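Let us work through a complete example step by step.
Step 1: write down the sequence.
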Amino acid sequence: MSEVTDDASSPGPAEESGRQIVPLLAPRDGVPDVVTTAEGVAKAAAALSEGTGPLAVDAERASGFRYSARAYLVQLRREGAGTVLLDPIPTAADLAPLAEVINPLEWILHSADQDLPGLAEIGLAPATLFDTELAGRLAGFERVGLAAIVERTLGLELRKGHGAADWSKRPLPDSWLNYAALDVEVLVELRNVMAAELDEQGKSEWAAQEFEHIRLAGPPKPKADRWRRTSHITSLKTQRQLAAARSLWQAREDLARKRDVSPSRVLPDSAIIDAATKDLRGIEALRALPVFGGPRQRRHSRIWLQALEDARALPDTELPPKTPPFTGPPPASRWARHDPEAAERLTAARAALADLSAEVSVPVENLVTPELVRRLCWDWTDPEDGEVEAAIDRVLGEGGARPWQRMLTVPALASALLSAAERKGSGGD
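Step 2: predict the structure and record it as tokens.
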């Protein structure tokens, strides 16, 4: 799970109402030993099978240290069974008994989309899901980090810990394991409180659809031209320089994947930009640059130099364009110039969704994705049959919007598009 960084030190609703906040410093049953053997997995599976109710789940990764998103520690807790801390690295081939027990259960996670892909890699996946972070969003909570929600609903303080640490480190320090166990300590209780909150607000069905969407979503698809996200890439002036940056980025990516090391730890973005701006010839010229002359980089000099030479050898027809090609609508800031009518539609749609968001106490981005709204407004043409709502519903459905989202947003969007058309017909008065 991500490190608890959601303004834990600032006053929350419980504090503002005079409610005493109790620090949660250690698991009530102590910190269990980490399961590292097949025998331990079997014992853990047997214990969890004797428990009752849903399963609290968390996973610790090594983001910023490792290339992969694999789980380096898995935390499980079930009523009547206690907490299990599992090291999935030495036990990866032995998890079938555990999967047989826990995969048919409802899992409770906070920000489930972060952990589910890594857990799926080791054969662990829930039959149903409850995401406490997403529940907080749908319930209209302003702060939805785990610490903030636990404080608000349970009156407990989860202090900042080691979520951003290198969990691939072995052995794991005792303080880290204490932190990890606390992350699942109150998830079952939190789930019940949040379920009651959603039910009281009439949002249980909305949440069920969202949870199922997250459960089935799978890992995010890699974005095209990821190399263009290199810091300060816009400082490069020519296509040849962009080609050099792209080639170095890909070489770094290949090396990072092979070594399972975060790309930024293989070669910083600043070094890629520096080398891309210079027409380097030979290893010594490369090593004369900051970073590339360091002891860690010298052993990879030929890799970086080959990447630069590959870029230099590209014909002009294969150089990357200075600006990325659009696969959808252009940036909204350009709409007024390119298509004023689309800009008018987008403005009206955003205003309608903002009003709806305030009315139902759900963030706009959870009502419908901003990208889907932009596509709708950019590509919109009045339907020949005049059925505006049906046309919008079809677009949103094809874009992956869930039934509850369409039920709420289609009428609002239809009204917005119709009002934009009326303003156009009246000359904007």
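Step 3: interpret the result. The CA atoms of residues 279 and 285 lie 9 Å apart.
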